[in-house]
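User:
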Amino acid sequence: MFFKQFTGFLPLLILLAAIVSIAVQDYPDFGIIMAMLVINACLGFHEEHKAKKSLDELSHQLESEVAVRRNGETLQLNVKELVPGDVVLLVGGTIVPADTQWIKGDKVSVDTAPLTGEPIPRKYPGEHGDVILSGTTVVAGECYGRVLRTGADTEIGNAQKDVMADKTVTVTSVFQKKIMLVVQVLVSACFALVIAVLLVEGLYYDGFSTDASQVILDAVSVFKYLLYHGIGMIYLLHHNSRYLHTHDIS
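Assistant: Predicted structure:
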């Protein structure tokens, strides 16, 4: 996850600046630019790690043990070991470990807020059927239920899969596209100016014939100057656009 942060337009641009610094033997600037590259990677890694940690904590909340009736025996099993067909005992305070069909017992009150957002507990069996969904909490009553679906096949499991799928899709807002367009124009202008220096000094003033290495060094120096002065603004624009998009600020 950390090395993934070194891919993309901005990290490659910073790396290009570092290569230019090495080419002109400007070691202090090289150190500063590499520090910027590492800081950029650390910030991106921190954001992704925090999101992954929150998702892991949510998954961990569903991990517990439950009384199970299997093959004529009563067992105390981790919820990860449940399979469709197991009969589980649901009591007040139990987080329902799987999508479970009510079999017998009391009419239980179930807090379905994590899935439906409803503040008032639902009664099962009742107008909402007899299937108690995974991730909900039994508030009152005791009953036996048959496991129908577990893990990723449950309603909450499908929701988590959708969340993970959304995280793998990069959505670029109109604002971000405009910012990246400005950045690309600035970089293109830098390259155009460097090529102009090469052409004018190398061809018009015949620099390629007299001292080609000096012409190339001058062009690299111009590129280095433009890149150093533009990279700060580019870095600021890029991260501000990411911040506004992440916090949904328009």
